[in-house]
Write a structure and sequence with these properties.
Layout: H1 14-18, E1 54-58, H2 86-98, E2 103-107, H3 117-128, E3 132-137, H4 144-153, E4 157-161, H5 167-174, H6 180-192, E5 198-204, H7 213-223, E6 226-231, H8 249-257, E7 262-265, E8 274-279, E9 290-294, E10 307-310, E11 315-317, E12 326-327, H9 329-333, H10 339-354
Parallel strand pairs: 1-2, 1-10, 2-3, 3-4, 4-5, 5-6, 6-9
Antiparallel strand pairs: 7-8, 8-9, 10-11, 11-12
Helix pairs in contact: 2-3, 3-4
The structure holds iron/sulfur cluster (SF4).
Iron/sulfur cluster binds next to loops.
Length: about 375
């Protein structure tokens, strides 16, 4: 079935786009110099004294959706041979937890496309022993069996991406053959499989799915889960982001409050990206239902950032909006695993974190969108 492309904005020129294909990152180019951390620094912290405790690993850049604010219909992917193995991910995770990482989130592309996902989860659980392992998924491949297998392997948290409850909007947004009903059914299956803290993320784009703000809030009540609305960010493959399409957090909240009075929930985690709210008139069936806004553009949380990212081919990005990234591939693939080579990787990670920028510059005239799209970074 031919998917009609919703007009988000003017398509960028081919040259600009091809220079930004995921492959663009595999072509070796001079890595920027790293700032050496002071010798007494033996854990992950940046030069702004922000401790780095959360690791996000994109285990693949492939996806079975083509969300219009993220990936082009004819997106190209890294060759399978360039994706790190479960053992590589687990080794990096082990070194990272030895340096202070506590939480690990597996992302993509769509991480459930990796048939070795259970092995990745299990090896990270057994070798790195983080406080928790979480997964972000579009929910289209979450069967009863796979959910039970991931849970048994050590997965503790699940976040589903769903930008529309309305099926035609779901289709025009994701350009996939899946359905909103399938994702909602996957959430129910995850609840039956024993996953307690389930969240649902929705990216809101004006003129595309902003009509879904209230239906998604109702879904939070119906499913008794947390729905978090994410402001549209300039991380799309086409570099077509347009501020006019941004629905700011205050507008999302006032739309919800037009129907549901909300009560703010203080966040236990100082580095949390989400501002959360309980429904003031809680229905008896949805005691855990809540809504939240993740507002990187209008309510930046960079000053309390605790995140580090590793890509599927082994590049390290200290910030989601890093223009620079540093590779660990050589140390991982061309040096036998040993305490010495682990120490080299650890020192490189310490220096990369020390080189972390203060934050994104989306609101500055000097803003430069990273070449690597969100689909190859992983949220
Ligand atoms: S933009 Fe960068 S510094 Fe800011 S919160 Fe995101 S990852 Fe952290």
């Amino acid at each position: 079935m031919k998917m009609e492309l919703p007009i988000l904005s003017v398509r960028p020129n081919a040259d600009a786009r091809s220079a930004r294909s995921p492959h663009a990152h595999t072509h070796p180019h001079a890595e920027p110099p790293l700032r050496r951390a002071p010798s007494h620094i033996r854990h992950l912290i940046d030069s702004f004294s922000r401790p780095i405790r959360d690791l996000r690993i994109s285990i693949t850049d492939r996806c079975n959706f083509r969300c219009v604010y993220c990936m082009e219909p004819d997106a190209r992917f890294l060759p399978h041979a360039e994706l790190l193995s479960p053992a590589h991910f687990a080794r990096l995770a082990k070194i990272c937890t030895s340096l202070g990482i506590r939480k690990i989130r597996l992302t993509g592309g769509e991480p459930t496309l990796r048939p070795d996902l259970p092995e990745i989860i299990r090896l990270i659980r057994d070798l790195a022993k983080p406080d928790e392992i979480a997964l972000t998924t579009n929910g289209s491949l979450c069967t009863d069996q796979s959910l039970l297998t991931w849970k048994a392997a050590g997965l503790s948290r699940l976040t589903f991406s769903l930008d529309a409850v309305d099926q035609s909007l779901f289709t025009s947004t994701t350009r996939s053959n899946s359905s909103a009903a399938e994702v909602i059914a996957a959430i129910r299956r995850a609840q039956s499989a024993g996953f307690s803290t389930i969240k649902l993320n929705a990216v809101i784009v004006r003129g595309l799915n902003d009509s879904q703000i209230l239906p998604l809030a109702q879904l939070a009540l119906d499913l008794n889960i947390a729905v978090r609305y994410i402001e549209y960010m300039p991380l799309d493959e086409a570099h077509a982001w347009n501020r006019d399409k941004l629905v700011p957090a205050h507008e999302i909240l006032s739309t919800i409050q037009s129907r549901h009075p909300l009560t703010p929930i203080p966040s236990p985690d100082p580095s949390s990206t989400s501002e959360n709210f309980l429904f003031s008139n809680p229905s008896t069936h949805a005691p855990s239902a809540s809504v939240g806004v993740i507002a990187p553009v209008t309510r930046s949380f960079c000053n309390r950032c605790s995140r580090l990212r590793i890509t599927a081919e082994g590049k390290v990005r200290p910030c989601l909006f890093s223009i620079n990234e540093w590779s660990l591939r050589d140390l991982l693939l061309n040096h036998a695993e040993s305490p010495d080579s682990d120490a080299l990787i650890a020192q490189r990670l310490i220096d990369i974190c020390w080189s972390k920028q203060a934050g994104h510059t989306i609101n500055a005239d000097s803003f430069q969108q990273p070449a690597r799209p969100m689909s190859a970074i992983g949220g």
